[in-house]
Each structure stands twice: as structure tokens, then as C-alpha cells.
């Protein structure tokens, strides 16, 4: 056997759903289980990489043999990811990051009073986009290979290519979350992987671990060419 595809590489993977607090006992989150991110972490570890896993809310047990950084909100994840960008050869954003958070987090539990209650939300920073902007503004430095995900319900190619360009990513893995066995909280996925040239590969219904291995094989080949 030859050398492992990711030996000597340092990779950062985000997984799980961010938690956006409303008050001490209530929050907004999403259905991400962390399974896709954990499969990517396990596959990278087994391909020889030194793995950092930035992990938001999940009920799954994280894999062994990787460094785990626990975070709660999108803002926490933003800090954890953007804090040390030049230390990584690859960054994969499999987490489902909340696009919005409550404008203010109440210190005390909100009491039941009026018939109607409205919650004001503000936009969270886009972490993937921040990574892409950092790359564009640091051309001379060691740059991470950036892989984003896209959870869509149709028009995969259009949205994936738009995200790839807007967020300056090297690959976008698009899952059609309206398909059986794809996306959130299942052990399988159906994805199409896009690069700057368009569709790179479609992976039919497969275990998330199999999908993860294929993503890393494609990434490793492109990282060597860079
Ligand atoms: O965790 P599982 O249950 O296994 O489910 C896996 C998954 C469906 C969550 C995963 O495969 C996936 O698609 N993750 C990304 C979901 C998502 O947030 O997609 P998006 O289209 O909203 O975001 C596009 C990309 O931008 C993602 O890489 C996301 O991490 C990133 N993003 C989004 C918003 C934000 N504020 N910051 C970001 O970095």
C-alpha cells in the first residue's frame, strides 16, 4: 500500500447544529445530528490526517483519536474556526449553522404574559464566507482547501455553484434534503460534489462514511495538485 491520502495533513471539520439561545432554558436549533461531520472526521483520521472537530449540538458520540472543540452558537463556531485558519490544510463545513439568532438573549426565563410574543432575529456571520474572504486577502500564506456543504430542496447545481463562487470555496457538497435517505439525521446521504468547473461527481444513496471517504479522495487529489 502507498502512503495514506491525508498523511501529514491537518484538517478542521465542523459538525452538528448550532444552538441559538432565547433565554436560559430555550433555544433555536435544527435537525443536524452531526453524523455527516463525524463520518468526515473518522474518514480523515483513517486516511492519516491530524483532525480537529468543531462540534455543535449533537446526540451522537464523537469519534476517538481526534481533537474535539465543543461550541454552542454560530458566533462560538465562528470564533473557533476563524481563530487559526492558517494552521489547517483543509476545512470542511458540514455543520448546519443557524442563519439567524435572537437579537438579545434574556438573562431570566421569559414569563408567559400576552397572547402574542414576537422574537426579533439578527443575521449570523457566514463562517464559510469568512474563510473564503480570508483566503482571498492572504494570497501568500499557507491556505486551507475549503469544502462547503449545501442543503437544498431542488435546483442543486444552481445553488451549489452560486455558493462555491460567493463563498470562494474549492468544493461544494450538495445534498438534496428532500430525497429519501439524504441529509439530516440519517446514516446515509445522496450528494453531488461541485468544483469550479461544475459537477465533479454524483454519489448515489450510500453510507455517510462512504460519502466521506470519496469527498476526501477527491479533495486529497486536488490538494496535491495545488
Ligand atoms: O448532521 P447530519 O444529521 O448528518 O446532517 C448532515 C447535514 C445535512 C447537516 C450536512 O450534510 C449539511 O448539508 N450541512 C450544511 C447544512 C447547511 O447549513 O447548509 P446551507 O446551505 O445553509 O449552508 C451552506 C454552507 O455554508 C454550509 O457549509 C454551512 O456550514 C455554511 N454556513 C452557513 C451559514 C453560516 N452562517 N455559516 C456557514 O458557514
- Can you write the helix and strand succession as a string? EEEHEEHEEEHEHEEEH
Q: Can you identify the CATH class?
A: Alpha Beta
**Structural class by helix and strand composition:** alpha/beta
Oligomerization: single chain
Please, what is the average pLDDT?
96
Give me the CATH superfamily: CoaB-like
Structural descriptors:
binds ligand PMT; single chain; 29% strand; 226 residues; alpha/beta; Rossmann fold; two-stranded antiparallel sheet; 8-stranded mixed beta sheet; 12 strands
Note the topology.
Elements: E1 10-15, E2 20-23, E3 26-28, H1 35-46, E4 50-55, E5 67-70, H2 74-82, E6 90-93, E7 100-102, E8 121-123, H3 127-137, E9 145-152, H4 156-166, E10 171-176, E11 188-195, E12 198-207, H5 208-225
Parallel strand pairs: 1-4, 1-6, 4-5, 6-9, 9-10
Antiparallel strand pairs: 2-3, 7-8, 10-11, 11-12
Helix pairs in contact: 1-5
The structure holds ligand PMT.
